[in-house]
Design goal:
Bound molecules: NADP nicotinamide-adenine-dinucleotide phosphate
Family: Belongs to the short-chain dehydrogenases/reductases (SDR) family.
Shape: globular
Strand content: 15-25%
CATH architecture: 3-Layer(aba) Sandwich
Helix content: 40-55%
Number of helices: 8
Radius of gyration: 17 Å
Protein name: NADP-dependent 3-hydroxy acid dehydrogenase YdfG
Largest sheet: 7 strands, parallel
InterPro entries: NAD(P)-bd_dom_sf, SDR_fam
Keywords: Oxidoreductase
Organism: Actinomycetospora succinea
CATH class: Alpha Beta
CATH topology: Rossmann fold
C-alpha cells in the first residue's frame, strides 16, 4: 500500500469502497476538485492503481472487520498528524446479494448486506467523526439507495439494510447539530457498476439483464453529485439527494425499449 504521504495541503477525504464503481468515480471527481482522496477497499491492487492515478492514498479496508477499520482509522490519523485535515468521508462501501423473497430469505446474504452497508458505515463513521469534527469543517456523505426509501419484491435484505443505513446517517443530522460537520445522503437508482455482478454472484448474463433496454446511470453521474454536494459553501447542507435514470420510476418500474 502507498505510504501515507499526502504531499500537499489538500484536505483529506476518505472514500470507502473506492476500488470500483461509484467509489472509484467519486475519488476521481473529488481529486479533480482539489481533495486528497484516501481510498479504502479490500481489493488493494485495484485501489492502488486508482490512488496512483488521482494522487491519493490507498489503504486496505474491510468495513465488516472491526480490526481492519481500526487500522485504517489509525493510518488516517497519521495523515492528519502530518498536517492535512480530514474534511470529508464518503460512506460508499456496500452492495446487495440475491433477490430471494422473504419466504426463502437467505440469512447469510442478509448478514453480508447488514455487515457491509449498515455496520460498516457505522464503524467507519464512528472511527472518523472525531477527526472530521476537529477539522472545523467536515462533511459525511453516505451513498444509500432508492432501496433506502422504498421496498420492492425480492429486495427485502437489501432494502432493509439500506433503510437502516439511511436511518443511521439521518440520525447524524440532529446529533451533529452545532458541530462543524455537514451530512448528505445520496440515494441513487440503477447505476451500471459491478453492483449487479456482485448481487448475482458473478453471473454476467443475469447482471446484464438489470440494465437491458434502459439507459442506466453511470458511476460518474453519481460522483458528480457527490463532488457538487461537497463543494457547496460550508453553511449549505444538502440533506438528501435522489437521482435515477430517466427510464426508472421506482425500484421495480422501468421503461425498457
Ligand atoms: P460496486 O462497483 O460493486 O462497488 C462496491 C464497492 O464497495 C467496491 O469498491 C467494493 O470493494 C466495496 N466493498 C464491498 N464490500 C466491502 C467491504 N466489506 N469493505 C470495504 N469495501 C467493500 O458497486 P457500486 O454500485 O459502485 O456500489 C457503491 C455503493 O452504491 C453501494 O453502497 C451500493 O449499495 C450503492 N448503490 C448502488 C446502486 C447501483 O445500482 N449500482 C444504486 C444505489 C446505491 P472491494 O470488493 O475491493 O472491497
Amino acid at each position: 500500500m502507498s505510504a501515507p504521504n499526502p504531499g500537499s495541503d489538500r484536505p483529506l477525504v476518505v472514500v470507502t469502497g473506492a476500488s470500483s464503481g461509484i467509489g472509484a468515480a467519486s475519488a476521481r471527481a473529488l481529486a479533480a476538485d482539489g481533495w486528497h482522496p484516501v481510498l479504502g477497499a479490500r481489493r488493494v491492487e485495484r485501489l492502488q492503481e486508482i490512488a496512483d492515478e488521482v494522487g491519493g492514498t490507498a489503504l486496505p479496508l474491510d468495513v465488516t472487520d472491526a480490526d481492519s477499520v481500526a487500522a485504517f482509522a489509525a493510518s488516517v490519523r497519521e495523515l492528519v498528524d502530518g498536517g492535512a485535515p480530514l474534511r470529508g468521508l464518503v460512506n460508499n462501501a456496500g452492495g446487495a446479494q440475491g433477490t430471494e423473497k422473504v419466504i426463502e430469505a437467505d440469512e447469510d446474504k442478509w448478514r453480508w448486506m447488514w455487515e457491509s452497508n449498515v455496520l460498516g458505515t457505522l464503524r467507519v463513521t464512528k472511527a472518523l467523526l472525531p477527526l472530521l469534527i476537529d477539522s472545523g469543517d467536515g462533511h459525511v456523505v453516505t451513498i444509500t439507495s432508492i432501496a433506502g426509501l422504498e421496498v420492492y419484491d425480492g429486495g427485502s435484505g437489501y432494502t432493509a439494510a439500506k433503510h437502516a443505513e439511511g436511518a443511521l446517517h439521518r440520525t447524524l443530522r440532529g446529533e451533529l447539530l452545532g458541530e462543524p460537520v455537514r451530512v448528505t445522503e445520496i440515494a441513487p437508482g440503477a447505476v451500471e457498476t459491478e453492483f449487479a455482478l456482485v448481487r448475482f454472484d458473478g453471473d454476467e448474463a443475469r447482471a446484464a439483464k438489470v440494465y437491458e433496454g434502459i439507459t442506466p446511470l453511470v458511476a460518474d453521474d453519481v460522483a458528480e453529485v457527490v463532488a457538487f454536494a461537497m463543494s457547496r459553501p460550508s453553511h449549505v447542507n444538502l440533506d438528501t439527494i435522489v437521482l435515477k435514470p430517466r427510464d426508472q420510476a421506482t425500484g421495480m418500474r422501468f421503461h425498457r425499449r
